[in-house]
Amino acid sequence: MANPADIALEKAAQLEPLGDDDAYALLQVPAGDLDVLCEVAGKMRDAFHGRTLTYSPKVFLPVTNLCRDRCTYCTFRRDPEEAGEWTMAPGEIADWSRRARAVGCIEALMCLGDKPEIAFRGFRSFLAELGVASTAAYVALACRLSLAEGLLPHTNAGLLSKRDMAMLRPLNASMGLMLENVSARLRDRGMPHQHAPDKDPVRRLRMIREAGELRIPFTSGILVGIGENEAERVASLLALRRMHAEYGHIQEIIVQNFRAKECTAMADSAELTDQEMVRTVALARLVLGGEMNLQAPPNLSPDALGYLVRAGINDWGGVSPLSIDYVNPEAAWPAVERLRALCEQEGYGLEARLPIYDAFVTERFVDPMMLAAIAALRAGPRTGQRAAVHDPRKGAVA
Ligand code: SF4
After folding, report:
1. Could you tell me the pLDDT band of residue 398, with boundaries at 50, 70 and 90?
2. What is the rounded distance in angstroms from the CA atom of residue 49 to the CA atom of residue 315?
3. What are the start-end ranges of the H helices in the chain?
4. Which residue among 27, 47, 135, 157 has the highest number of C-beta atoms inside a 10 angstrom radius?
5. What is the pLDDT of residue 1?
6. H-helix or E-strand spanning residue 253
7. Which residue among 60, 65, 70, 76 is best mutated to probe the pocket of ligand 1, counting the most ligand atoms within 8 A of its Cβ?
8. DSSP 34-97
9. What is the 8-class DSSP label of residue 366?
10. Can you tell me which atom of ligand 1 is nearest the CA of 113?
11. Does ligand 1 lie within 6 Å of residue 175's CB atom?
């Protein structure tokens, strides 16, 4: 009699949805059988997404790197007056948006630390001087500035209240929050989220649920390699799957691998091997099903890109011709031409996409004003030009 893992794989091969038990049974597939997982996952992707992969030409706007949390792997966050502290002024946001549009970017990724106004008096004064009441209100201003330059904002501002999300909804093509992992264990003493109250999985799931209630096209995902085990990865994927089954609002799921950074408490922690990352992506495809958009960042696994394609991704996420990845500043995005050549080697095309997937461009998910902005961009060319990569604080860096 076939074992549960084989039964689950057979169901997946027949494009049948997997139950929770099937999802956990897949963990019994031996690590050495990567090609078996990839074969089924790749076919599943092909059945729903065909032979074209996508990416989003974006500019990463780190609205502020002040953050009240202290995740032990993070080099993005700063304290006030710490070297590298940076809150983008409105003029910088407009300037960078203008330059981004000029080189073909479409997405303005508003990415920032969590709740700096709660932790830092100086940041509260900064907001007061601008006449905005909260960090979320400042993000709304940033979104307006980017929209005025012809970009489509996608905000990932950490944990937001339902009220703040409702305020930001008309100004964003989509929004996001990584679930990271459902395991409360990661907040225990000595674990990476011990000093990160906003990484409480219950609160993060609540925000993802509220985004569904608000009909916001939503990006989420898992962060892998921060001390979770494989069963906890599956539990996290299942939690996102359930949320999407209820509200239909999750437009894509990212599998993002932890990268160890110097000068952090996790500098010596083991990163996932490429094989482990590929296995996680393939498992995600099988658990989430063929239809979900599944993404892996190409700059975080530069030596495994072909294998990630075979493992069932259909999207590379945001790739910038202009700005660095401020969360992983050591990991340069590949040039789009290189990514395209790589996809072609694997037998796939590569197309630019908007920060909202086409299936979500409906009156149900998008406000009328945003629908008009999306229509204007859909009518134009989507491909970006290659420009010098800049760190706005330092000038050209590559
Ligand atoms: S990972 Fe995000 S929430 Fe955690 S410290 Fe860094 S900026 Fe803050």
Report:
1. very low
2. 10
3. 4-13, 20-25, 34-49, 90-102, 116-119, 121-130, 135-148, 162-168, 201-213, 230-247, 274-288, 305-310, 336-345, 368-379
4. 135
5. 59
6. strand 250-257
7. 76
8. HHHHHHHHHHHHHHHHTTEEEEEEEEEEESB-B-S---TT-SS-B-TTSTT--B--HHHHHHHH
9. S
10. 7
11. no
Does residue 377's CB lie within 6 angstroms of at least one atom of ligand 1? no
Q: Are 130 and 162 in contact (CB under 8 A)?
A: no
Could you read off the pLDDT of 141-150 as tens digits, one per residue? 999 999 999 9
- Cα(28) to ligand 1 centroid in Å equals 33
Does the Cβ of 69 fall within 6 Å of ligand 1? yes
Does 62 sit in the ligand 1 pocket, CB within 6 Å? no
Whether the pLDDT of residue 384 is over 60: the answer is no
Looking at the predicted structure, is the pLDDT value of residue 382 above 60? no
Residue 221 Cα distances to 20, 277, 281, angstroms: 18, 14, 11
Separation CA 235–CA 229 (nearest Å): 10
Q: Using a 6 Å cutoff on CB, does residue 144 contact ligand 1?
A: no
- For residue 364, is pLDDT > 60? yes
pLDDT value of position 381: 56
Atom of ligand 1 nearest to the CA of 67: 8
Q: Residue 376 Cα, ligand 1 centroid: separation in angstroms? A: 34
Reported confidence tier of residue 388, pLDDT bands at 50, 70, 90: very low
Read off the pLDDT of residues 142-194 as tens digits, 9 standing for 90 and up: 999 999 999 999 999 999 999 999 999 999 999 999 999 999 999 999 999 99
Q: Is the CB of 67 under 6 A from ligand 1?
A: yes
Q: Which residues contact 323 (CB under 8 A, 6 or more apart)?
A: 59, 60, 61, 96, 100, 389, 390, 391, 392
Q: What is the pLDDT of residues 220-238, one digit of tens each?
A: 999 999 999 999 999 999 9
CATH topology for the 19-393 domain: TIM Barrel (3.20.20)
Per-residue pLDDT tens over the stretch 285-297: 999 999 999 999 9
The token pair that represents 2 in the structure block = 């076939």
Q: How far is the CA of 246 from the centre of ligand 1 (A)?
A: 28
